[in-house]
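Hey L., structure's done. Input below.
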Amino acid sequence: FQLRLPFFPPPLSFYLLVTALEKIVSKPGDNATLSCIYQGGELHLKNLLVYWQIADDQDQCSVVHALISGQDNEKEQCTHFKNRTRLFWDRLKEGNFSLLLLNVSQSDEHTYKCIVLQKSEYTKVIHQASVALSLAASYSQPILSGPIRNNTEEEVTFSCRSDNGYPKPNVYWINKTDNSRLPSKLEISHHADGTYSVFSTLTVKASPNIQIECSIENKILQENLSAN
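Output:
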């Protein structure tokens, strides 16, 4: 029996065991729980093989966590996941094979597969689950500054700043008189915790009636923060 066996297509009867793809969002640096719950009755851990694997990139090391006959097996676990995965031992006999992934980062954004196999006369799949992990963090409410008159006094400059979000956002400047987008400059800073800060400047012709808005869009969170 090889550790990569669960990647082989199961018999058609087992496709009914595959749960819908669950999508979860976690903040960089936080812990994420990948759900895998079997509800088919009492289980004996010594007869089980439980694998958590990366499902969307089989070119790299794919073993996230393995439980064999009631014991963690770290021999073929990917180095990237060493000391970063935990099962909930008090819940295993109830069929809860969810995985706690510690200190998540950008490199953990994958679709993961949980595969539970039972050993009897032959080894069979009794449960599968898939979880897609995305990372996201809300940006701070943007702070809009200006206008600052340039040397020519024919143009003015506004600035807009927002901090500690993930992933990189879309930054828009909008002319509120006609809702058109205005060209601007953007600087992005990457922090040690994986989050970003953005600083954008807009230079426009001076006008007594100008109305502008700075908008920070985080697509994953479907979040749009603005200042005007």
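Residues 1-18 have pLDDT under 50 and may be disordered. The chain has two domains: 22-135, 140-227.

-- N.
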